[in-house]
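Good morning,

Attaching, inline, the backbone tokens for the sequence recovery test we're adding to the shared suite. The designed sequence is right after.
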């Protein structure tokens, strides 16, 4: 369990891997989402923007699909995400920015 012994009930790791990768499930669900994402020093909105920036910089569009949608859930507007991705394109490389914007377009137009 997390340091504060409070579970969010997050099961994304378990949903993705079941019993196949128990370590990945543990660190995703209990450490990353029960501990790191629950820390009070940054809002979930800010954590989402930071995560989107990091994933864009690394060109990790598979993970961006989840985290762009999660950012919307955490209060980041579509317009703010578009602006963030435009800004990031200049700092992370145009192909990374284009890839991230393509993922966001799919989410917005797909209604996710």
């Amino acid at each position: 369990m997390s340091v504060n012994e409070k579970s969010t009930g997050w099961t994304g790791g378990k949903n993705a891997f079941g019993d196949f990768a128990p370590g990945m499930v543990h660190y995703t669900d209990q450490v990353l989402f029960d501990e790191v994402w629950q820390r009070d020093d940054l809002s979930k909105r800010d954590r989402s923007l930071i995560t989107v920036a990091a994933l864009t910089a690394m060109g990790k569009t598979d993970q961006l699909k989840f985290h762009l949608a999660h950012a919307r859930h955490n209060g980041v507007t579509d317009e703010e995400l578009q602006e963030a991705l435009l800004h990031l394109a200049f700092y992370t490389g145009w192909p990374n920015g284009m890839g991230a914007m393509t993922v966001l377009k799919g989410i917005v137009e797909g209604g996710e």
